[in-house]
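Fresh eyes needed here. Have a critical look at this protein's tokenised backbone.
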Amino acid sequence: MIQASLRKLSLAAILLAGSGALALPAAIAAPTVVDDDPDSVITFQTQDIQAVHMRHSDMVYVPLFGSRTEDQPSLERVAVIMERLLSKAKPDTESASIDSQNVYFMTKINVTLADGGTFIILIGGADKLYFDYGGSNYMAQDAAAVKELNSLLVEPDQTYYSTSNPQIGKSIHIKGNDASSEQGVIRIFANENGSFGGGLTSANGVLYPSRQALLIYEAPIMQGRYDLTFTMPAYGKAFDGSLKPVSLGKSWLYYDTGGLASMKEVTITAPSKPMLSINGVPVTGAGLQPVVQNGVMLLPMRALADALEWPVMWDAEHKAALLGAVQPGKSVWAANNGSSLSVWVNGKPLSGAGSKPVLLHNAVYLPLRATATAFGSAVDWTQTVRSANLTVKPLLLSPEKYAADSRKLAAAKSINAYVSAMNSRDLTTLKTLFAKDRLVWPAFEAIGQQLITGVKIASFQDRPGNALLAEVTFTYLFDPNGQKLGGRGIVFVQENGAWKIADVD
């Protein structure tokens, strides 16, 4: 147990400092250790350590985390070293005069404690250590501690890429252990000219390496490590939020862990057959694979309707695909003998080139562009990447349904905004929807490429403190756990006269 009052220092200021002497407070007297009073002795247990970050000049070593079982033996050694250094501590009278260049090339060990404090060590020589604890500067001589600390320095593995020739529509595997954060997001960008280093923040809060870079994938970082497999997409999200096709041929993949970034030269190739993406995400499920006939992309009717909750049904008697809520009347059918397959939208036949359904493998296939247009969605075909991108909007709540109750109306509007912001991964907007000091949930790294395609409110319930609970059902596409439906309880509270989200569970 740590038995001292600690003041938290900036970890980044120490780890990233490249010039100047060790930036620590002025030295004061060393801690007093009273042998006959065990409560005055400062001791450390493994569980007192949250993380250990280590670096030497520009080399950042693999960090240690209290949450990682494999790191426990190393953390135990760190705890013992910290105790030993305090037992030998003397006031630091030297580090302030060390040349800045020498400081840069010294090894730094930053221990983040579970209670928010820090224990910062600078290796000054074969047996010399400078350290800060509780906001005070100390130094000690301990050759064994230097040797043990150096033995904990493990260089990260070379980031693994399963291929240097990613093909659109095929899987690519990336794995590494060079992320410094315990939890976070790794972002993969593609750029044909290899120009990175702009450090530009987009409107929804994503740091782009350049204006030309396309964001193609995001995945979670866990305990400083990442291990992701994804389908190489045909489209990526540009700095301005639009979707743009990935460039083929020589290109660069750039990854950013939030603390470290690197890139790899690759050759991107076109897919082996025409491919469909929905809102930029490649469709990989076997049930929703497109077929191209006479230049028209066709999709299986049932799978399309299930995936996007489009109201579609098949009238076997009249050989007609019926789209929308309005069905053709008897008089219409009297004039249609069903001699050929047809598509009807809200009771009216769809005509023109590329509007006919096709029967394939005992299943009805609908023309994608005609069907999407009928539901107000857009389809863009990009020949270079042999891909069509279907842009769909979620089926949102109808606010007028809740107009009689101002609380429910505000909640419905907020839920609609929440769905749209989650789908676009717009953290900036989401923060405005949540109450002050409330975390946006779920975190983007937890939902992968999940797309909300629809939302319904099952019920409202009053909660203490004039709060309001909305029981909500979402429908999903591309959920990382394969879920198509998910129930959430969204709690709303009033803040400065406006209804804000307090919790999502």
In short: Residues 1-39 have pLDDT under 50 and may be disordered.
